[in-house]
Design a protein that fits this description.
The complex is a heterodimer of chains A (112) and B (477). Chain A has helices at residues 5-14, 21-38, 89-93. Chain A has 112 residues and is an all-alpha fold. Chain A starts with a helix and ends in a 19-residue tail after the last helix. Helices cover 40% and strands 12% of the residues of chain B. The longest helix of chain B is centred in the C-terminal third of the chain and has 24 residues, at 372-395. Chain B is globular and about 65 Å long. Classes of the chains: A mainly alpha (112), B alpha/beta (477).
């Protein structure tokens, strides 16, 4: 499969990246080089091999815990405050590029 | 005080025995950083205020004659992808150039709770994406052993700081080799623990199923002490495992006689530099002389590790890095007339070339029509790579091989060829895909005096095993 300029523009749109003309050209070249290399995976017949998204389900579970069998270690009972209190508004907004003291401010959402 | 050779135990003892104070020791390190770091570039941000406050706390304990914690007064550095409350954290990226986190990474708070002094934040490739530290948005790091060469990456600052005596030990992160490869290039010890051994809370995510936090030290024992301090269940990371944490340092001297050590033939094939090969082979022979039973093993799918890794890692990255949008923190592009224009322009200005490349590759691999062919395929191959290790560990206790196919390369040598750069991780990525622990230890040098590292793997949660083998080799040196 060859990646085209059109593919690069489409994927850049999905990823919310604005690429310059130069960057688009270079991206076509780089993605084709990397994907060409990645194509070696097709030498392997994996039709009977299950996909693996996480490591944790390969080293067993704590059977004494209730809940889903494979991920029991990751569950806990609900608690009212959570593990940590929420940040006060001013702390949560401290890094905001723009805020009005209560909310994050952003440019107009609806475009004409 | 002579900083070369200063270890965790000797630094702590110097404070305990009042040969120095924690504050004076921290100042000595700041002076060293002040005089040497301009040519190395290991530190991005110094946290002097926080360091001296912690040092004063330790010195008060000494004054009162109270019991000192295990890392009391030990100066450490932290890779700048780990958040530190009130201390700027950039992930090596312009998009987070002014970010001051409101909370601490668990691994950092555990180090401080054990008495460590956080000197500052260490340079790295942007969002930990790179193998040479040249992708830092701020400055490259120069290898302290040869300033014309890279320190490796992405935790290049963490390795260089320890190698150049600008920290006793440090924390890095490893998503595809980013602790072990720079440890190898800089001639220090670097350990990537089992996935789930150390909480990832407060690690700015690159690829969540592959990211690990781990230590750098000058000695195997220091890596063991650091690991024990940061390991263990943390309710803030649901993937951190509920598995007891042994006193690794107390176990490293146990004999390795009779231990079965596997040599994976696939790690000695085409592309391996001749000097690296002969040095690592000599190191393996030394393990044989120490009584280890050396046997050949096979990891037959090794050549598919890099392609599988770069699909899984970039797919996860494209999702994780979606949060950098100019709304809640970080850079925002000026003058945008709509929200979507603001997103695009912010991300265009804020991300460097390699980060954009990986977001693009990952988004492509996850996009409609390509998901099965790329992302799902890579996940299936991930299972095969993991089974390779499971089979091998039925026969052996540990597997050894080179950490990297070459010693440190020149700055600029690979920047224009992303694929060549990716291949620097050829022996390290599989351990991330499988989640098994790995350590890199210095085992020699090239004729040009560039360090060579050997890597040791074991099965999940068998960090004690790799530390014992590593320590046996180090002690016999």
């Amino acid at each position: 499969m060859q990646v085209t300029e059109k593919d690069v523009s489409y994927v850049a749109d999905l990823a919310n990246l604005e690429l310059s003309e130069d960057e688009r050209g270079r991206m076509v070249r780089d993605l084709n080089s990397i994907l060409g290399y990645v194509d070696s995976l097709n030498e392997l017949d994996t039709s009977a091999v299950p996909p693996m998204a996480q490591v944790s389900d390969r080293y067993g579970v704590d059977e004494s815990k209730k809940g889903s069998e494979r991920f029991a270690y990751a569950s806990r009972d609900d608690v009212k405050e959570g593990l940590r209190k929420s940040f006060p508004t001013e702390v949560a907004l401290a890094n905001a590029p723009e805020s009005d003291g209560t909310f994050f401010k952003v440019p107009k959402v609806i475009e004409k | 005080m002579n900083l070369t050779g200063l270890t965790i135990d000797s630094a702590r003892s110097a404070v305990l025995e009042r040969k120095t104070t924690a504050a004076a020791l921290a100042e000595t390190f700041y002076a060293k950083i002040g005089s040497d770091d301009s040519k190395i570039g290991a530190y991005l941000i110094l946290s002097r205020e926080r360091a001296l406050a912690k040092a004063a706390e330790i010195d008060r304990l000494v004054e009162k004659g109270e019991k000192l914690p295990p890392l009391a007064g030990v100066p450490v550095g932290i890779k700048d992808v780990l958040v530190t409350k009130g201390v700027r954290t950039t992930a090596g990226s312009k998009i987070l150039g002014n970010y001051v986190p409101p909370y601490d990474c668990t691994a950092v708070s555990r180090l401080e709770a054990a008495g460590a002094i956080v000197l500052g934040k260490l340079n790295c490739d942007e969002f930990a994406m790179g193998s040479s530290n040249e992708n830092s948005a701020f400055k490259p790091v120069h290898n302290p052993r040869d300033l014309t060469r890279v320190p490796g990456g992405s935790s290049g600052g963490s390795a260089a700081a320890v190698a150049a005596d600008m920290a006793v030990a440090s924390l890095g992160t490893d998503t595809g080799g980013s602790i072990r490869q720079p440890a190898s290039f800089c001639g220090v010890v670097g350990l990537k623990p089992t996935y789930g051994r150390v909480s990832r809370y407060g690690l700015i995510a690159f690829a969540s199923s592959l990211d690990h936090i781990g230590p750098f030290g000058k000695t195997v024992k220091d890596a063991a002490i650091m690991l024990r301090t940061i390991a263990g269940r943390d309710p803030m990371d649901s993937t951190s495992a509920e598995v007891p944490v042994p006193d690794y340092a107390a176990e490293i001297d146990e004999p390795v006689k009779g231990m079965k050590v596997g040599v994976a033939k696939e790690y000695f094939g085409e592309g391996l530099d001749g000097e690296v090969r002969s040095t690592v082979e000599a190191a393996i022979q030394k393990l044989g002389k120490l009584g280890c039973d050396i046997v050949e093993v096979s990891l037959p799918h090794t050549k598919y590790a890099i392609p599988a890794y770069y699909l899984v890692a970039t797919a996860e990255a494209s999702s994780n890095l979606a949060r950098f949008d100019g709304v809640r923190y970080g850079l925002r592009a000026k003058g945008a007339r709509s929200l979507s224009e603001m997103y695009r322009r912010t991300r265009d200005q804020g991300f460097g070339a390699e980060v954009k490349r990986r977001i693009m590759l990952g988004t492509y691999a996850l996009s409609a029509g390509y998901y099965d062919a790329y992302y799902l395929k890579a996940q299936r191959v991930r299972t095969l790579l993991t089974r390779d290790f499971e089979q091998a560990f039925k026969k052996v206790d540990a597997i050894v091989g080179p950490t990297s196919p070459t010693a440190a390369f020149k700055l600029g040598e690979k920047v224009d060829d992303p694929l060549a750069m990716y291949l620097a991780d050829i022996y390290t990525v599989t351990a991330n895909l499988a989640g098994i622990p790995g350590i890199s230890i210095p085992v020699g040098a090239t004729r040009e005096k560039l360090p060579i590292g050997m890597q040791i793997f074991a099965k999940h949660f068998a960090e004690s095993t790799i530390l014992r083998v590593a320590n046996a080799h180090e002690k016999a040196a």
